[in-house]
Design brief:
Layout (H helix, E strand, L loop, with lengths): L11 E5 L5 H10 L13 E7 L4 E9 L6 E9 L5 H22 L4 E3 L5 H9 L17
Parallel strand pairs: 4-5
Antiparallel strand pairs: 1-2, 2-3, 3-4
Length: 144
Amino acid sequence: MTSLVPTPEEPYLLRPYAAEDHEMLSTWWKGHGWPSVPAPLIPPFSFIAHDLAGVDQAFAAAYLDNGGTGVAMLTWITANPKNSPQQSLGALDTLIPFMRDHMRNKLDYPFILAPCRLPSLARLLQKHGFMPAGETYTEYIYGS
């Protein structure tokens, strides 16, 4: 399980998302050509990976079902568009397994859905044990 303590192999720390992070994340999503996720949609179980200098590198959030199905959804995964590919990979390589393991082992969610449309993110998810469960799709949202 990924720890919150950096090592030479994992030189990233994790911190919980805070409301004041939304503006930064909006610039990241827009920097990748995606619409910004409305702030009220960011769930409480959300984390940011940052490097040892404190520079934020990547973000992921998870919705945790409370209906008894044992299903969580890892979503809104993004990285700082100013990152090098290695920085994004390193940060996400720390963030995704930490969240996966915490949801499965500490919060008792045996199933985790992870919507994905980017081939690079799909490869990373598969590296961490996720399996494809469907074809390419478009996400829709209703509400304001």
